[in-house]
Amino acid sequence: MSAVLDHHDHAHDGHDDHGHAMTGWRRWVYATNHKDIGTLYLLFAFTMLMVGGVLALMIRLELFQPGLQFFHPEFFNQLTTMHGLIMVFGAIMPAFVGFANWMIPLQIGASDMAFARMNNFSFWLMIPAALMLVTSFFMPGGAPAAGWTLYAPLTLQMGPTMDSGIFAMHILGASSIMGSINIIVTILNMRAPGMTLMKMPMFAWTWLITAYLLIAVMPVLAGAITMTLTDRHFGTSFFNPAAGGDPVMYQHIFWFFGHPEVYIMILPAFGIISQVVPAFARKKLFGYASMVYATSSIAILSFIVWAHHMFTTGMPVTGQLFFMYATMLIAVPTAVKIFNWIATMWRGSMTFETPMLFAVGFIFVFTMGGFTGLILAMAPIDIQLQDTYYVVAHFHYVLVAGSLFAMFSGVYYWLPKWTGVMYNETRGKIHFWVSLIAFNVTFFPMHFLGLAGMPRRYADYPMQFADFNAVASVGAFFFGFAQVYFFLFVVLPTMRGKGEKAPQKPWEGAEGLEWEVPSPAPFHTFENPPKLNADATRVIG
Amino acid sequence: MMKRISNPLAAGLLGALATLGTGVAQATENLPGGPAVMQMNLTPAVTKIAEEQHFLHAMMMAICLVIFVAVFAVMFYSIWKHRKSVGHKPATFSESVTVEVLWTAAPFIIVIFMALPATKVLVAQKDTTNSDLTVKVTGYQWKWGYDYLKGEGEGLSYISTLDTDQRNLSNEGAKGAIPVDYLFRVDNPLVVPVGKKVRIITTANDVIHSWSVPAFGVKQDAIPGFVRDTWFKAEKTGTFYGQCSELCGKEHAYMPITVKVLSAEDYSTWVQAELKKAAAKADDPSKVWTYDEIVKRGEKVYATNCVACHQQNGKGGGAVKPLDGAAVVLAEDHAKQIQVLLNGQNNGAMPSWKALSDTDIAAVVTYTKNNWSNKTGQLVQPAEVLAQRSK
User: Fold this and answer.
1) What is the pLDDT of residue B6?
2) Is ipTM strictly over 0.85?
3) Residue B340 domain-assigned?
4) FRET label pair with A27: which of A333, A424, B242, B327, CA 20 to 30 Å apart?
């Protein structure tokens, strides 16, 4: 530990330190420090979460009652489209990159990310892209309204903002690819001596796999939307049926990206949960190796299940059977993960601070999303549920209660390390319970709506669907307020340094190199490779 | 006035928002063949396939529920007993190959048992051979076209559109007395005989739509440029409802599917009547119409097909071009406007209307040339449209 501190003090002398020279806006615009860039990513993602959340609440406002009260159907379609795009590409993905930036160098004993300037570039690229997405509402013709999946040939009917939207996605994709290259190179080349791959913390492992997925599929998305662009403007007809194009091909290409994308958004969440559960059970993660294998299996399987999003397009029966079987197989490694977490808790010595609450909440609610996923995987049942609110319920159970809850767990877990002060535990618990209950009030009734046949992306609906829609809308507003509360009353005070001073290792059972540096983590850490113990969990000299 | 809520949870939550009660829609009832109020499960099945789907769903729910209870009983037991606050000391185990193999194999086996019955249903569901009646379903923005291709009723062809009053009701915020079939009532439902295998061939004219009837267990995307098929065999007479299930643009929520299942005799009677009506309706494209006659006809055509986008005032809006004062509408030369109607414009933003009869197209063109501020006095005859078709 002292070694780390010495280096830290050195850094303050500033003789080999570029970062400290910059203050004010320069510190952020020219940022090359992984911690600063991590902070930028997290704040950006939270901003986008709020923007996407406002769009979601506008959707729920319109759906509170049958009939059109507030918005035209065209604008409603813009809301659902932009809510999806902003949440996926603006909130969830960048947030996980933010976690990676902050934590991966700390967890593997590296001094920073491998490509510090590229890191800066990949963050700042997102700003114009996000602006282009958000401001498309105010451009002629309004925002794209073809759904976040951007299915052809509906995209060919969209106004000019479809093009700026496609451009924005290209930029975000480039940013993601750069971020992924950075993460892979950092993990593979910059681990401290003794930190072998199979001793690496699970969060770093899941991100390594996620980064490979990203590099594999982001170009596929770029290809699909580029073909859409050339169809719109340059007379090609990849997807335009009027000229012999194939709109189903678009769906194949999109979902070849889209399904791994789903795992891109959940694997780092698995990583966070695999760090938090052992820390608060005061017991090592059960079945570390099988966790690594399970994560890899999920990643590999994710490439061969894409067409389960397309059961109603009318694939031949053999195609449907293949994709049904492959999809159901994913239940196996996922179940192994759930079992491992529960076995980690088993006979531990548990306490339930907010990170653990969110982790347990994650396991509980994510599993429900897993079960509905299994039900949707059954092609005959999917015929009933495809494109209904059941699907909406399913993917919000895995993306909100899954990815988002895991991120909250991670924020509470590492906030003391980031800011140097403890968050307010009571407020954390309020945030957790309100979020958990409001989430279920919002999304559980959607299963019923879907089973009863209510299609998604509807601006108005038959009277029989009114009651559950009203309940869902009420829940959604509570959920939204809970997140504003989280920022104003939990995060903001800690960012201002208000609260109890955090010790170096605030969690009794936490393990890993991030707890070997002081709180808050100094600007530069592990400038010289630390010497690690046999487990690679402690610095010994 | 407050909506009648049968669910105490909903009532409780909504009670807090009672102040929002002004203008809340009225009480409603179940729609037989469609959704029920607060329906929590799949729509009652009227085909064998839908029954099988219900069985599979019930089976999956049962298995998932058992696993859920078992797994979380363990977790909550552990949360209860293995807490630091009750003085539990952490164990040190962190691996067991036996257990790992066991709980990898167990879900694998369970999944296989789930897949077996699903395979059977899937194969049956995809078997569209030996149908008694074949109907082509075409998705348009935003209505359905039905063409009876083979079997009793062959040659019938019509368009099915949402009831205009219901569409207006939606714009008005669905206030006042709401019909029980709100957003489900169409002018011309699909009519089929009971107990006969009906093969549905789907395609679309513009973008992807999806033809779906939950009670039949049928959902099939209608894809432009492609032909796909599905089938059903209704076991009961009655009226059954579904809604378009693939985002198809702004009126996506307003193109329902209504299927009337009739007994064999009723079906035959219906077919005979329809065939007679169709024969009587067929317009002679060489007929020369008077101004008043054709404008009146045009007004109807406009109300059925054009008003959703171009609006009652002919001003359009957003991407939809105005007709009122438009050069192409006012032009002496009728050809350009007729061509736009026949072939569409702007990548299908204005769809092709060539499915309409020459008389209908001539009528609606005449109507737009003489309505709002467009007072051209021009009259377009069906023969002109017929001539343009071949160009």
Assistant:
1) 46
2) yes
3) yes
4) A424
